[in-house]
Amino acid sequence: MKLVLVGVLVVSLILLLYILFVKKLGFAWLTRLGFHVVLAALGIYLVNFSGLFTEVYIPLNPVTMSTALVLGLPGVALLVGLKMTIV
């Protein structure tokens, strides 16, 4: 089973490198990714310290950052809604 997983990892890495170098994507996507990470952290920071929701605190960890990164500001709203409903 481990051999299959390692094989999938190697094949996906080779395909990603092929796309990166053949399609001439360059490293501009890293700049966009960094910008989105900063915006996600800023959105979570504003929710935590704005005072609009006094009982809501969203920790900055990889799970919350990836949610806010993938979904954007609606992801931050989703995290606030989850925090208010579950806790």
TrEMBL record:
Keywords noted in UniProt: Membrane, Transmembrane, Transmembrane helix
Stretches that traverse the bilayer: 6-22, 34-53, 65-82
Listed Pfam families: BofA
Domain of life of the source: Bacteria
Protein name (record): Pro-sigmaK processing inhibitor BofA
Species assigned in the record: Paenibacillus anaericanus
Lineage: Bacteria, Bacillati, Bacillota, Bacilli, Bacillales
